[in-house]
Each structure stands twice: as C-alpha cells, then as structure tokens.
Amino acid sequence: MTPDPRKVAILISGRGSNMRALVEKAEGYEVTLVASNRPSAPGLAWAEERGIETWSEDSRGQDRADFDKRLGDRLEESGAGTIALAGFMRILGPDFIRRFEGRMLNIHPSLLPKYKGLDTHARALEAGDAEHGCSVHVVTEELDAGEVVAQARVPVTDSDTIGTLEAKVLIEEHKLYPQALARFAAR
Ligand code: GRF
Description:
- The protein is an alpha/beta fold.
- It has a single domain (4-185), classed as Rossmann fold (3-Layer(aba) Sandwich).
- It contains six helices and seven strands; from the N terminus they run E-H-E-H-E-H-E-H-E-H-E-E-H.
- It has a seven-stranded mixed β-sheet, with helices on both faces.
- Helix 1 (17-24) runs parallel beside helix 6.
- The two termini are 20 Å apart.
- Bound molecules: 5-O-phosphono-beta-D-ribofuranosylamine.
- Residues 12, 14-18, 86-87, 107-109, 134, 173 line the site of 5-O-phosphono-beta-D-ribofuranosylamine.
- 5-O-phosphono-beta-D-ribofuranosylamine is lined by residues 12, 14-18, 86-87, 107-109, 134, 173.
C-alpha cells in the first residue's frame, strides 16, 4: 500500500491517554492502526473497542532488529504514512528510524532541548524552573533530539509536586499533540 501521510499509526506502551486524545480529536488525519510492544497496554483495549485495528507483540527479550522489522512491516501494511509515538517506551533501532525517516513524531514531557529522557517533571522541579511543558518533535536516531515542531508551556508554582506538574503538562499534551499531528500530516 502506498503510504499516505494523513493515515496515522500510533505506537503506545501503556495507558495511552495521548493516543486517546489523538483519536478523539482526529481532524485532517485518520488513525489506521494502534500498535504496542506490550500486549497488556490498557490503551490497546480502548482502541479495539472503537473498532480501530491493533497490533501487539511483547518486545521483552526479543532481538531489537527482528522486532523492529515485524513492527515496521505491520505499519507499512496499514498504509500509514505518519507514525505517532505516544508513550512508546522501547528504543527503536537505526534501521527502523531510517525506514520511516521524517515520518515519525513523538511527544515528550519537557520543553526540549531541556530534560531529554526520563523523570522530566522531577528534574524541572529540582532545577527550580519557573515554567515547564511538553514538546512534539520529529523522531531521529538520537533520543528526544529531532526538530521540535510544537511546544506548550505551563507555569510551575511553589506548591507543585511531581504529580501536579505531570497532570498540568498532560492536559497540554492532549491539546498540543492532535494539533501538531494534523499540521505534520498535511505537510
Ligand atoms: C506522556 O507524558 C508522554 O509525554 C510521554 O509518555 C507519557 C505517555 O502517557 N512520552 P500516555 O500513555 O499517553 O497516557
């Protein structure tokens, strides 16, 4: 199938709240597949209930290149021309990244280039930052380092904890990602 940028496959590993926002606010793109490296990811059941095609395979203990190949084949088969990572917690290998180069987005809970990797809310609090937020970026081989296509900011207050900050940022993630994805899919 010829890949169509407006057809989107979403990759998740867990609860999938960003995936739900992408599905519920889909305008200018269509979600054709939700795929996961964790068959028990709660987001998968939610997508299935809505009649969206799903694919999952437990990636634990699997050879990276083999898993990436099967996932990549399934994505191609779905006709998706855009891939949205949404809480996908497995590192994708260089062959996979090259295969889908320039067609993959990710959402990251920090104002990149600050706080690549994990524990972003704790790190923002520890640093005493006055603001924090989330970024949508193009996926490249280097973790959380591709071009940033959209950002949203939230103020950090003295009473914020990791939990309150995470909740505030998540609200912004759910607004930002569908908008950024729609623009990216229409490019
Ligand atoms: C979000 O905070 C996202 O920014 C990060 O992982 C989390 C996924 O949450 N990449 P959810 O599965 O979308 O609820």
